[in-house]
Amino acid sequence: RRRRFDASLGALKSLAERSRTLPDLTPAYEFDPELLVLWGSLDAPELRREAKTFADVLSSRIKRLRTAKVEFHDPDLWALRIADMSNRLERLIAEPKASSLDEPVVSIPGWTAYSIESYDDRAAALPRARWTLKDGAIAHAPGRSKDYLIYQTPIGGDYQLDYEVNHLGLDQIRVVIGGTAIAISDDKKLEIGAIGSTSRKIDIKPPLDDSPSGWFSFSIAVKGNMTTISIGGRKIHDEPISASRDPWICLYQEALGRGSIRGMKIKGGVAETRIDLSAGSSLPAWRRDYFGARSAKAWFKRGGEIFGKGPKRYEDDDANNRRFMYEGVMQSRSDEIENRGSDVEALFVYNRPIPDGSTIEYEFYRDDAAKIGSSPAFGGRAFLIEREGVKVHTITDLGYETRGIKADNAVAVEADRRGAAPLPVKDKAWNRMKITLHDGKIMLTLNERLIYETAIDPAEPSLFEIFHYEDRTEARIRKVFLSPPAGGDAPKGSLIAEPR
Q: What pLDDT is recorded for position 147?
């Protein structure tokens, strides 16, 4: 046994040295032996510390290449798998009796953990993030590609948020206010931008000094239509903010980041009781790209409506206007889906977990002859609004699907249907949909009539979504409002409280 241990330890050290010397452009698949060795070390307690050191070497390589903007083959999934191994090893070293397959449990009073999932994240079976709270500091350990911790009370009005972070660059936990993430880059520039879009870098003059303690203090003041950012007691930048800003305070961390945040305190602010989710033009709290880059171009806002691109071009008020701007790029509307086959799923996701006790109301346009229509979705299930009654569609993982379901899957669950057929859906008209979350159940009310009631899957993120088949219909929705649970008060003082 001792000889096997010495040989295994030697192999780990040899692989670590090899990874340090491989060229920067080495494809990710050439590191498969390293991943297999790390996976095997999970169930070998005597090897875990050396394996964790090895995983840290690989993580450092990824961070260095990303900071230097070196492009190499298939970096994202490899980076997430290395982060997963590092996270599991760290947890098993701290909790030797835990299972290597355990999912992390996050319980921080007042906050909800959420990892952005895409179809390939799910297929890769990557775990969700591990956020921990100790001695007044929240720390992040790697999870999926984008990890969030969201404060459960939506806050509006004027307020000031103070906090400290202990890293810069990729390891820094970013605070998201009004849909905008705020951070300091590795080269000590202020970095501002919506998650998923290109951030702007702003020079800090005079340059930011190093912190002897390793912690950097931030102060974010929101007043009227302006956000003022101060670091170390020094005003750095004023940033305009929309009157219809996203009211959720979020912590955001890249998958490989291992930052911490502490001392989060708030002064002022009011608890929002009704939130217009369709306000503004950029919709920073919504995700367009669940199905990848091609789906990101399929959703856009024009006037007071949100559109999901369909098989038929929607005629503009000006019949000659066939182009529109999306994230600074001019896009063209095509008459049909470009060679994508049939049953093309499209999903527009409100990227904030919806708390139990909430109500969502919106309007959707339905015109069967013109192929316009959409359905509500929640937690990975779409509730298809069909004449004879609601059918449940499980949203797939496209080419990565492992559950044996097809893109056109739809099941009628008679026990969950409410009321007699047909549904009270209006053709060539706007329809009102109300979604109520209560005691672990979701209830759908269409044009003032309850039509469906079912249990929420606790294993799925509690996300509100709009679904349609892109090759069948165009989606049009408007007047999307969220009413959080009644009785919530704006926080006062610290936003970080230890569990009782």
A: 82
Determine the pLDDT at residue 72. 54
**Cis status of the peptide bond prior to 458, with omega within 30 of 0:** no
How far from the centroid of its chain's Cα atoms is residue 83's Cα?
17
pTM of the model: 0.81
Cβ neighbours of residue 206 closer than 8 Å, sequence gap 6 or more: none
The two beta strands, 329-332 and 449-455, are unpaired
Q: How far is C-alpha 138 from the geometric centre of its chain's CA atoms?
A: 19
> Residue 266 pLDDT > 80, yes or no?
yes
Q: What is the mean pLDDT of residues 150-176?
A: 91
List the one residue out of 84, 190, 100 whose CA is nearest residue 147.
Answer: 84
Question: Residue 415 — left, alpha, or beta (φ > 0 → left; ψ -120 to 50 → alpha)?
Answer: alpha
Closest CA to 297 of 318, 320, 328: 328
Q: Are 315 and 224 in contact (CB under 8 A)?
A: no
Identify whether the C-beta of residue 140 lies closer than 8 Å to the C-beta of residue 128: no
Output the pLDDT for position 9.
74
Give the closest residue to 496 by CA, choosing from 162, 90, 158, 128. Answer: 162
- Match 């939130």 to its residue by tokens: 275
CA dist., res. 408 & res. 392, Å (int): 11
How do residues 170-225 score in pLDDT, each as one tens digit? 788 999 998 889 999 888 999 998 776 678 999 999 988 888 888 999 999 999 88
Q: What is the DSSP letter of 367?
A: B
344 vs 339: CA distance, rounded Å: 11
Rounded to the nearest 10 degrees, the angle between the axes of helix 48-67 and helix 75-94 is 150
d(CA 120, CA 118): 5
CA-closest candidate to residue 337, choices 382, 371, 386: 371
Residue type at 301 in one-letter notation: K
Least confident of 126-135, 380-389, 413-422, 440-449: 126-135
DSSP state of 411: B
